[in-house]
Design goal:
Three copies of one chain form a homotrimer.
Chain A: H1 7-33, H2 45-74, H3 77-100, H4 106-135
GO molecular function (chains A, B, C): enzyme activator activity; glutathione peroxidase activity; glutathione transferase activity; leukotriene-C4 synthase activity
InterPro entries (chains A, B, C): 5_LipOase_AP (IPR001446), MAPEG (IPR050997), MAPEG-like_dom_sf (IPR023352), Membr-assoc_MAPEG (IPR001129)
Enzyme class (chains A, B, C): transferase
């Protein structure tokens, strides 16, 4: 029964969830390093960049999961899962880049944006085909 | 095989994901307009309203997706998908209203809250019926 | 047909979505109590703790939903759903604790972190088994 399940999408999703947890953890470590006690969210530039890097990942995480699964189920699971892996790499580039300097978040940001666009386009193609199959 | 897939839920989900991306983009444009470089998130009232409008959408996006799919699968796909379209319209009203003036976010907010409640109630009804089917 | 659907995961998801909505509502009530008009997000410590308590729930909500469903589908639905209930309890402990005093958020935070780790580990085990079934 489980042999029909989209195991690659699930694997990439769990990996991305762990990566999100790891980013939250690094915000916690940055709090300790600079002694910034919750609920305070302002402080030295490095802390604020770390905090915002995580927030940006949060802002896009649900969008990523939605597009990953719809692209993977309606278009192609392997292609979407590979896209998901590239997204995680882009998120890590974004996070580590942003912490060092604001501008260094950009390469990761472009990569992440490209993957989201790619997943959205492939999802739309897959939905269009499934729509024709189902209703016409 | 793809003819069994909830294609309307998928279509509304991708549309809502693109709308979320568009809102993030407008925060970026507002940053450029007022020259507010990340990680700064404070500035002129218009920028702060734009920033918070997007944040509010982010806060509710995963809730929306969860209720949309559960309502659509356990209650009725067409009804849930139409609810999802109204939600996106409400989010756009909220966003554009909020940018012009804080109080103008309210009509969109009420519409969005109504749709979420509607999806939650229909989801609960569908779950209750499925629970009776499966366990009793 | 509906008798095959993961009704327990759906029920816990809707419950958690309502709990998220309730937390957002309490931020709104805190705004009224301290007369803090949007888009302002700073104010007396109690308001800032309430605001941040909600934000933390938002940051983890999509991660929770992803792990809940993958653990429930690939490992065991009943176990994952019970984990989800404990997560909601932990979130409530976190929220009410945080509002009273920053340090009192910690018991709920540890419980919530433990559940997420548990769901991630069970999800990984389930994915590993499904991967062997499907590809080997």
């Amino acid at each position: 029964m489980t042999s029909d399940l989209p195991v690659l999408l699930a694997a990439v999703s769990v990996l991305s969830a762990l990566h999100m947890g790891f980013q939250a953890r690094r915000v916690g470590w940055s709090r300790m390093k600079f002694k910034i006690v919750p609920p305070i969210v302002t402080g030295p530039p490095e802390f604020e960049r770390t905090f915002r890097a995580h927030q940006n990942s949060v802002e896009f995480y649900a969008i990523f999961v939605v597009l990953l699964w719809i692209s993977g189920i309606f278009f192609n699971e392997v292609v979407a899962a590979l896209g998901g892996l590239v997204y995680i790499v882009g998120r890590e580039m974004y996070f580590t880049g942003y912490i060092s300097e604001s501008k260094r978040r950009l390469p990761g940001f472009y990569l992440v944006s490209f993957v989201l666009l790619f997943l959205a386009v492939t999802a739309a193609i897959g939905i269009f085909q499934a729509f024709l199959d189902k209703y016409l």
